[in-house]
């Protein structure tokens, strides 16, 4: 059996980092003790993975340090990186006494056909963990491999597995951020929420959750999205925002009812110039108040954001943003939402069963509600086809309505090629 692995040159190697390479190599014939060999079925690919690749060598993030590149002709871990992906697979061999062949799993995998992973002694019915002592302890959520048989959120249907790979990596950041905001009564009863990068999954999942809270509480809190001109139609079509404005003209469009009352600004874009314009808009208007600025992500990756993030970002990279350093005198100060910290607090306040029930209810509703959002799912199967799909993304970019599920296995009647969510 041969393995196929999707790799990219490291920028430090002097090669083009956007050059996709499919490496063909042997799989291990012997499995070390306390390891599992996975057959990776399929994995999601989105703007999230573009960010992983762009920050692969950045010292704070180190995304290329989760999975080693294979040693093959012209390829090594010094010259190439493997961009992590969220995907599903099946254990085909195990030398760990508590993990068994045949188990279906979900986790932070490599874009490959086969993946060999070590397993730590910490195993429970829900998950096992990959030991990565070379990475900071706060990377633990990435090291968890979920055992589907024990996962209360798992649904074996192919369409739900696909949706899981696309939404699950980001949805829980949005979910716990909304829970955090609600715990403060939205900072004392704010009447409107302004979100940047409104076409991103993190932002529109947060908008979805705020809208759901509004319905449950009978609130008239307005949700306003900011996005690029090219993503304006898609963002409006989501029907999750009360108003959507483009970045170029929002400070002249955000008037009337949209500019009155207390406002919370949630920065998902991580764009310093945009954040300054938002602050200046509210400062100049006077009849409305910006009472909170919350950093919640990074969707606009550029060399400048990469350079600043490695020096200035917070304790982990699961839900952080940039921008506060550009405006040291700004009021209110930027608050960075850190999902693991808030979840640790909630675990002190609520029982495990209560948290599990909260998440199950929210996830079940999402799996039903997200199918009307107009996101087109494209399944791509086979090494050559995946390489071509990646090259097309490099050439044309990723539209917010695009969602990809890739597999390095050849297409079968079961996997199909295209579906509408």
- Looking at how many chains there are and whether they match, the oligomeric state comes to single chain
Strand content: 15-25%
Q: Which CATH top level class of the largest domain fits?
A: Alpha Beta
Instruction: Give me the number of helical elements.
Output: 12
Which CATH architecture of the largest domain would you pick?
Answer: Alpha-Beta Complex
For the termini, the CA-CA separation is 34 Å
Largest sheet: 9 strands, mixed
Number of separate domains? 2
Helix-strand topology string: EEEHEEEEEHEHHEHEHEHEHEHEHHEHEE
Give the CA-based shape: globular
CATH fold-level topology of the largest domain: Quinone Oxidoreductase, Chain A, domain 1
Q: Calculate the mean pLDDT score and round it.
A: 86
Write the layout of secondary structure elements.
Blueprint: E1 2-9, E2 21-26, E3 35-45, H1 47-54, E4 80-81, E5 85-94, E6 104-109, E7 114-118, E8 127-129, H2 140-143, E9 144-147, H3 158-183, H4 185-189, E10 192-195, H5 201-217, E11 222-227, H6 232-237, E12 243-246, H7 250-253, E13 261-267, H8 272-285, E14 288-295, H9 303-312, E15 334-336, H10 339-349, H11 352-369, E16 376-381, H12 383-396, E17 402-407, E18 418-420
Parallel strand pairs: 10-11, 10-13, 11-12, 13-14, 14-15, 16-17
Antiparallel strand pairs: 1-2, 1-4, 3-5, 3-7, 3-17, 5-6, 6-9, 8-9, 16-18
Helix pairs in contact: 3-5
